[in-house]
Amino acid sequence: MNASKAFAAIALAAVACDGAMGREEAKALRGELDHRTPYAELSDQTIGAMFDDLLQILRDDGLETLVAGAIPALTAEQRETALAVAAHLVHSDRLVEQSERVFLDRLSGQLELPEGRAAQILEVIEILHRDSLAG
Fold first, then answer.
1. Distances (CA, A) of 75 to 52, 63, 79
2. For residue 135, what pLDDT band results from cuts at 50, 70 and 90?
3. How far apart are CA 63 and CA 13, in angstroms?
4. Contact 74, 3 (CB under 8 A)
5. pTM of the model
6. Cα separation of 52 and 40, whole Å?
7. Which DSSP category does 113 fall into?
8. Helix or strand holding residue 95 (H, E)
9. How far apart, in whole angstroms, are the C-alpha atoms of residue 129 and residue 123?
């Protein structure tokens, strides 16, 4: 798996980890990738084929296999960004389920980031999504 497919695999796993991919999550997934290199330059057909492949892995082998196959293709910097994007996507529907928290915790460990870095990333994304102006 190359880095672009691996990055997309982590993002897909984030929206699928609760067993359902809602409209808001699917829209957020597409939005997260659309403005990034190399996805911005890819045709809809190419993106669709990539996600078809990733969904097949997800269906046939499961979430853990999808993630485990993706991580080795990513550099340390890409792993940090993949975690941030995954956390952002998990928060996209404004309701973080227990299964999503477990996924992010497990992903944090699997990515082998420097000590404390994963927690820092997750904290910042949680702050970003906090509805601090709500009554």
1. 24, 21, 6
2. low
3. 6
4. yes
5. 0.92
6. 18
7. P
8. none
9. 10
